[in-house]
Amino acid sequence: MSIFEYNGSALVAMVGKNCFAIASDRRLGVQLQTIATDFQRISKIHDRLFLGLSGLATDAQTLYQRLVFRHKLYQLREERDMKPETFANLVSAILYEKRFGPYFCQPVIAGLGDEDKPFICTMDSIGAKELAKDFVVAGTASESLYGACESMFKEDMEPEELFETVSQALLSSVDRDCLSGWGGHVYVVTPTEVKERILKGRMD
Amino acid sequence: MECVFGLVGNDFAVVAADTSAVHSILVHKSNEDKIMILDSHKLIAASGESGDRVQFTEYIQKNVALYQFRNGIPLTTAAAANFTRGELATALRKNPYFVNILLAGYDKETGPSLYYIDYIATLHKVDKGAFGYGSYFSLAMMDRHYHSGMTVEEAIDLVDKCIMEIRSRLVVAPPNFVIKIVDKDGAREYAWRESVKDATVASA
């Protein structure tokens, strides 16, 4: 079994009208066994920037700690938050540092940049960035997620409709993947507020 | 195979571990205590490579004590768990420790807690956790009978149910178990569950 499939994960981020949504599943497993059904895969870097880490959970935790450290230093030096584009470059650089002994993670970065323009991107485990205008996916359920998002996505969705779309895409994709699921965690971020919601799907 | 499991109750946490020290087909001893008292209000139940288990848990114990000497206050359970994960994560890509840990503790402010830390340094706070082949039975038993806010009697009853299940259904079931508990009065041994005692040595 691949090391990327050891813990199981599903992540998706989608762009809406002056907003974005980032969603993940909640399962933490060790191969076939489920350890927990409340695992947090998405973390807030600052009010307008969220990071989701799929792949090996231990590397996701280590990488998250390193990135929070770097962002806090940046905040102290620059006296402001990092822009999403800058943060994506930072993540890419940190991953490529370990080119010949990588972190087994696929990050998904979603944030609101200048003039509240939503920014999403994903990258592979060695930092190859993939910018997208509509949606990005990661994790063991990524293939199903590509299909679901491609068919359900529309341009310029309002936050409520975006939430519905992301939720349906996530739940239907994880139901086809035995290693991810056990509910969903969705963040819908607009310039004024962050709405965090838990989804109840098939609990298997 | 080594069985370790634990759960969080009303205002206490309980962990149980088997007590057999095995090398290949030989049982060296059947009263090996695998649950270390980390400090006054923390227990560390460890399973895995026996040399690593003893060395690593003693290392954590001494460092936790050092923190208390230097700073005058003890570490919280969360801090101790994160320190343990950090040590495992640092060693992971150099000289990994093959030790799985359940860290149970009681803090005055936050109450009882249980942390699942596997050998590749995945950390997660859980209500119930288990390692080893016995986990297939004990986790299933706990999923069925566990509810939050259990009393000591209910929890020990559940622990006994898990031990019965392991003894009757696991082919290489360990005969003896030790149960330790941690609550506001501290960490202490609660009981042994023995079905085989070591043969007494005849005097010379």
UniProtKB/TrEMBL annotation, chain A:
Compartments it resides in: Cytoplasm; Nucleus
One Gene Ontology CC term in the entry: cytoplasm
Alphabetical GO biological process terms: proteasome-mediated ubiquitin-dependent protein catabolic process
Residues spanning the membrane: none
CDD domains: proteasome_beta_type_3
Entry-linked PROSITE patterns: PROTEASOME_BETA_1, PROTEASOME_BETA_2
Superkingdom per UniProt: Eukaryota
InterPro entries linked: Ntn_hydrolases_N, Proteasome_beta_3, Proteasome_bsu_CS, Proteasome_sua/b, Proteasome_suB-type
UniProt cross-references to Pfam families, sorted A to Z: Proteasome
Keywords: Cytoplasm, Nucleus, Proteasome
Family: Belongs to the peptidase T1B family.
Summary of the function given for this chain in its UniProt record: Non-catalytic component of the proteasome, a multicatalytic proteinase complex which is characterized by its ability to cleave peptides with Arg, Phe, Tyr, Leu, and Glu adjacent to the leaving group at neutral or slightly basic pH. The proteasome has an ATP-dependent proteolytic activity.
Quaternary state and interactors: Component of the 20S core complex of the 26S proteasome. The 26S proteasome is composed of a core protease (CP), known as the 20S proteasome, capped at one or both ends by the 19S regulatory particle (RP/PA700). The 20S proteasome core is composed of 28 subunits that are arranged in four stacked rings, resulting in a barrel-shaped structure. The two end rings are each formed by seven alpha subunits, and the two central rings are each formed by seven beta subunits. The catalytic chamber with the active sites is on the inside of the barrel.
Name of the protein: Proteasome subunit beta
From TrEMBL, chain B:
Keywords on record: Cytoplasm, Nucleus, Proteasome
Entry keyword annotation includes Cytoplasm: yes
Spans through the membrane: none
Pfam annotation, one family: Proteasome
Localization of this protein: Cytoplasm; Nucleus
InterPro entries, alphabetized: Ntn_hydrolases_N, Proteasome_alpha, Proteasome_beta2, Proteasome_bsu_CS, Proteasome_sua/b, Proteasome_suB-type
Family in the record: Belongs to the peptidase T1B family.
Subunit composition and interactions: Component of the proteasome complex.
Role, per record: Component of the proteasome, a multicatalytic proteinase complex which is characterized by its ability to cleave peptides with Arg, Phe, Tyr, Leu, and Glu adjacent to the leaving group at neutral or slightly basic pH. The proteasome has an ATP-dependent proteolytic activity.
Record-given protein name: Proteasome subunit beta
